Amino acid sequence: MKASSNLQQVLDSGQFAVTAEIGPPKGANPEVVRKHARNMKGYADAFNLTDNQTAVVRLSSWAASLVCLQEGVEPVMQMACRDRNRIAIQSDVLGASALGVKNMLCLTGDHQIFGNQKEAKNVYDLDSIQELMVLRMMRDEGKTWGGDPLETAPKIYLGAVENPFGDPFEFRVPRLAKKVAAGADFIQTQSIYDMDRFERFMDGVRDRGLDRKVHILAGVLPLKSAKVAQYMKNKVSGMSVPDAVIDRMKNAVDPKAEGIKLCVETIEHLKTVKGVHGVHIMAVAWEEKVPEIVREAGLFPREISIE
Amino acid sequence: MKIIGFVCLDSALAAAEQAGSKDKEFSSAVTLVEVPCTGRVDVVHILRAFREGADAVFIAGCLEGNCRFQYGNIEAKKRVILTKSLLQSAGLEPDRLEMFNLASNQEWRFAEIVQEMVSRVEKLGPNPLEKVNK
Amino acid sequence: MIIAEQKPLNDIIQMLEGHQRVLVVGCRSCVAVCLAGGEKEAGILAESLRLHSELKGKGWDIEEITLERACEKEWVREMEGAMEGKNAIISLACGVGAQVIHDIYPGVFVIPGVNTISMGAPEEQGIYMEKCGGCGDCVLHLTGGICPVARCSKSLLNGPCGGSQNGKCEIDPETPCGWDLIYRSLKEQGRLDLMDVVIAPKNWRPSRSGGLRKTVRREAVQTEEEKKIREAGQ
Q1: Residue C53, domain CATH
Q2: Distance CA A22, CA A40 (A)
Q3: ipTM of the complex
Q4: Cβ–Cβ of A130/C199 closer than 8 Å?
């Protein structure tokens, strides 16, 4: 039985959904998460709490999700496959679900070489598609992987990520289809600067009827400067940043304002793309701009209901 | 002073003979070992030379691209690099060993090479093993 | 084959401290192919150690021998004669050979002269790439002949991940993306349909994760009777 989380209700009702992201701190202080939750409350239908993003040790996603619940804000808990085996993953799902977390995002996770624990042994017992299969089995059949029955099945809404800008391009839509087949209810994409490629991706999505099987939230990330744009182009794998975007940031009188403007324009355009059912705003280290972006994009106010 | 020079027949030896006929001074310090190609010189040969008390060792072969056996001199160059590192770990200065390339008509270059190795030995001092062997 | 790499000479020298009569043992199999511990390398190491010993007055007695294959007891026993008077062995054989040598000479200090790295093959002379993940449950028929356990940095079975770009893995611009290779291979074979199959969570029990692996070929194991007959014959 599905969770009927707020996010699910918004998506199922056909409204254009908004999710945003909170990056937990590199420390044991929950106040950072509380502050962001309070500032962004009401501006998104649910908030992703990243899971040791880029393999840097941070306050865990499940703990940050609880802080959000305490603030009356709906979390999307993220679970990377890099750090946990299937036992820990299923256990964390039961724990988080028991405490009220409903949205769970399955992702592979950046390799540990990117983070501050380069010498760690990684896990990758499951990949993100297998993770979806396992979580769906827990929810729909009330069993752990392998068939052992659970006393209480978790009520969860399952998400995954897809990257239209990864290679090979011709496999990106089939890979999305695999995630849907494995159990994904909603998808959040990597941030979009290359609208052409994203449109081609969506063509493929619609061709296969996937837009009727899964809710896609298109990712956007406001740029602070040309330097950030350049960094993303060169150093972050799986990102496509056209030169036109970099030039626009370079030539801007006020790069920050330009970055927000570009982000809002992108969202406005995405609202018109058939098959896109929402937007996922990743204001990395710039969470305070989310309210402005949501307002400017005409997506405020939002009806929220959290049980 | 004892310097061992592995010289290839095609280039270095010819140059050496020309140089030798003009200037006898260096010949007592230098012992030449003729090889058909510097690619014939193994790492163990070089290490052995130092164990036997050589103060310095050089390997002189054809200019790159001119090796009769195509890339023997390139193999020799790689071995010299490896041996320098082994010498360092074993406890000898890597500068005591060097690889040179020259043509058969460059007797002036051969004289330069010998002079270079002589000044290196003067700077670094004799092989400590020389004392042990004595 | 097993790919190994010789440890730096400094490290070997340090590990040797306290031992004087040393046998350097090379192996003519895998480590000879990847130029880490064959006869040539054993000779060079022995000579370097002698040079060091003489320079520093350590009084080491270094000998070398190269075995056909250090992982088989019958061949390891051939070093019996060379072992006389030795109190340390530097194994240039891989970790397997080093341990078989230890099994035959349990009282002798064995120094690993190489780091054993992977199961792989030469790409070209001097360059050796990991190929096989040793997972005990091979699925090469599903992945176009390319091992997803070893050649995908995350050992994904439903790859590639979002970090694959231009055929390269996110961890290093030189590292090929294993799933990109798989995709291209399946495409060439006309089997892209296999890319659409959702592969279920892997059973890792046959892998190292499930514990030390003992492999038995029943037909080859000698019964007690057979052993008695053979012994009597000797």
Answers
A1: 3.40.50.1860
A2: 10
A3: 0.91
A4: yes
Residue A192 exposure: Cα atoms within 13 Å on the Cβ side: 29
CATH of the domain at A215: 3.20.20.220
Structural domain boundaries, residue A269: 6-296
Is residue C109 located within the same domain as residue C139? no
What's A15's DSSP letter? Answer: P
| pLDDT the model gives residue A285 | 87
pLDDT at B25: 59
- What number of other Cβ atoms are within 10 A of residue A121's Cβ? 7
In a domain, A306, yes or no: no
C9 and C52 together in one domain: yes
DSSP 8-state code for residue A118: T
Task: Give the pTM.
Answer: 0.91
* Identity of residue A223: L
CA distance C11 to chain B (A): 9
CA–CA–CA angle B82, B86, B92 (5° rounding): 125
Q: DSSP code of B11?
A: I
The number of C-alpha atoms within 13 Å of A138 and in the hemisphere containing its C-beta is 27
Domain check: are C111 and C141 in the same one? no
pLDDT in tens, C53-98: 999 999 999 999 999 999 999 999 999 999 999 999 999 999 999 9
| Residue B134: per-residue pLDDT | 43
Its domain, for residue C111, covers 2-118
Q: How far apart are CA C104 and CA C107, in angstroms?
A: 9
* Residue A2 pLDDT exceeds 70: no
Letter for the amino acid at C160?
A: P
Give yes or no for A293 touching C (CB within 8 A).
no
The length of chain A in residues reads 307
Percent of all residues in chain A with a pLDDT value above 70, rounded to a whole number: 98
CA B100/CA B63 separation, integer angstroms: 8
User: What's the CA gap between C45 and C59, in Å, rounded?
Assistant: 16
Is residue C232 domain-resident? yes
Q: What residue spans define the domains of chain B?
A: 3-133
Identify whether A106 is part of a domain: yes
Classified by CATH at the fold level, domain B3-133 comes out as Rossmann fold (3.40.50)
Establish whether chain B is in contact with chain A, requiring a minimum of 3 CB pairs below 8 angstroms. Answer: no
Claim to verify: residue C99 and residue C153 sit in the same structural domain: no
Are residue C112 and residue C191 in the same domain, yes or no?
no
Q: Does one domain contain both C54 and C103?
A: yes
A237 at C interface, C-beta within 8 A: yes
Nearest by CB: B50 against C43, C44, C51: C51
The reported pLDDT for the residue numbered B29 is 86
